[in-house]
TrEMBL record:
Keyword Ion transport set for record: yes
Protein name stated in the entry: V/A-type H+-transporting ATPase subunit C
Record InterPro entries: ATPase_csu/dsu_sf, ATPase_V0-cplx_csu/dsu, V-ATPase_V0D/AC39_subunit, V-type_ATPase_csu/dsu, V-type_ATPase_csu/dsu_dom_3
A molecular-function term among this protein's GO annotations: proton-transporting ATPase activity, rotational mechanism
Species: Eubacterium barkeri (Clostridium barkeri)
One Pfam family linked to the record: vATP-synt_AC39
Keywords assigned: Ion transport, Transport
Domain of life: Bacteria
Length: 349
């Protein structure tokens, strides 16, 4: 190992990584004729089996698989955290913060729709060991003010307190974007405080990911939502590698899409997002994820002395879970093998 400080945790994640799906597993899943066949294969041939044992093969849908697999991911992160301390432990815990925020988002959407929040409990995925949110009391909140009051001793209260109501049409979008901004500010805070030499490749990869999110946000915000300069800037993310705030401001001020695309393509490393003009909108998100998949795969195999291998394993697990759920969706819509492969993050040449 490159660094004895991380030899134990690196050995742990290498063992976990060895159980992940192989290319042959992917090909077998894609060839299954229906959703029941996919689930049957996952239960009988993969390490996902114990997490899917309660899923009914005959009544399976995307969430029925996605939720237990995400719970598995949370358990893996909790195990990894026992090997870490200090800023490194804090950084890995940001993955659990993201799970908290996703659970909050589900409940806030339920509140906006007037749903019984307790009925949403099976959809929530978070770390009971590390969360600072009292989800049991949140589920019992009968109105928006009561909901916010449960969060009063958390940082989320500061984000939500300015919203006097929560409605589908007016409040959901800014609330969700504010929570996203909070998460990435927290991520940046830890990135700035990790050992910069030990974690150089990790930090570079994470900051590239922020660049890509900003490009997609600016592109979609202008093309599909006609957002103002102020709105685009308010929810742009800090901490990117190549694209600094000055560049974001210039792109936010552009009036027409052709000029915006020219500016975005000036960042050579990210031109792949826009190379195929006819399919930009359809595959932009998948191209971003595929770029990051290979970046984290490369990071996993690097012999660095930081926590790059740990973070890469978590991200590769997330990509794999997304691919599994995409394969399930492909069966529901009776997509061909070729069509299915186009929507997967993992690339088959």
């Amino acid at each position: 190992m490159a660094n004895s400080k991380h030899s134990c945790v690196d050995t742990k994640v290498m063992a976990m990584k060895s159980r992940m799906l192989t290319k042959l597993d992917y090909q077998a899943l894609i060839r299954e004729p229906d959703v029941a066949g996919v689930l049957s294969y996952l239960k009988s041939e993969t390490y996902y089996a114990p997490f899917l044992k309660d899923v009914d093969t005959l009544q399976v849908h995307r969430q029925a698989v996605e939720i237990p697999l995400n719970r598995m991911k949370i358990q893996q992160i909790e195990k990894i955290l026992h090997y870490l301390s200090g800023m490194e432990k804090g950084f890995i815990k940001t993955f659990l913060i993201r799970a908290d925020i996703e659970a909050l988002r589900i409940l806030i959407r339920g509140m906006a729709r007037g749903e019984n929040l307790e009925s949403l409990a099976p959809l929530l995925v978070y770390s009971k060991e590390y969360t600072n949110i009292d989800f049991e009391h949140l589920l019992k909140a009968g109105d928006w003010e009561s909901f916010k009051k449960v969060l009063v001793h958390t940082e989320y209260f500061r984000i939500l307190e300015i919203y006097k109501t929560v409605s589908i049409d007016e409040d959901l979008f800014p609330i969700e974007k504010s929570l996203e901004r909070y998460y990435y500010d927290k991520l940046k805070w830890y990135l700035d405080r990790l050992d910069q030499r030990e974690n150089k490749a990790l930090i570079t990869t994470m900051r590239k990911g922020i660049d890509l999110l900003n490009l997609i946000w600016l592109y979609r915000g202008k093309k599909f939502y006609n957002l103002s300069r102020e709105e685009l800037l308010a929810y742009s993310l800090r901490g990117g590698l190549r694209i600094k705030m000055e560049g974001i401001q210039k792109m936010a001020e552009v009036k027409d899409m052709d000029t915006l695309l020219q500016m975005m393509e000036s960042y050579d490393e990210y031109k792949f997002l826009f190379n195929h003009r006819k399919t930009i909108d359809l595959y932009m998100e998948r191209r971003r994820e595929r770029f990051l998949y290979f970046a984290f795969l490369n990071l996993f195999h690097k012999n660095d002395s930081g926590i790059g291998k740990v973070v890469a394993f978590i991200r590769l697990t997330e990509f794999e879970i997304e691919d599994v759920t995409s394969i399930i969706e492909s069966k529901r819509y009776r997509m061909s093998i070729e069509e299915t492969e186009k929507f997967l993050i993992r690339y088959f040449d």
